[in-house]
Amino acid sequence: NEANAALNIAKGSYQQAASAANGVKSNTAALAQILNKDYAAAKSTLNAVANKDAYTSYLLAIVAARTNDAAGVNTNLKDAARKDSSLKSRAAKDLEFAEYKSSVESL
Predict the structure, then answer these.
(1) What is the rounded CA–CA span in Å between residue 35 and residue 64?
(2) I need a labelling partner for 10 at 20 to 30 A (CA). Which of 34, 35, 36, 99 fits?
(3) Contact 35, 9 (CB under 8 A)
(4) What average pLDDT is seen over the chain?
């Protein structure tokens, strides 16, 4: 369940977190999958989230960055910033996007 996944993320037990979140379609479940380096599953989970918010888009941008998808980084960061403008400054400092400065600067 999602609570166990969150607890395992906090403990650094990413594989257990992903197992606990199996079948759950949420940002927390996707975060567990990202931390467990299962990017295809994370992308699928995020695309299935019922009520997508700014963090859903931000996590999709992280998945895109980790899979060398520059267009995905750009699209998802813009969507995240449109939904929550505070994510612009967060993205500017986030090492996940160090190789995508032009996408971050265009926010």
Answers:
(1) 14
(2) 99
(3) yes
(4) 96
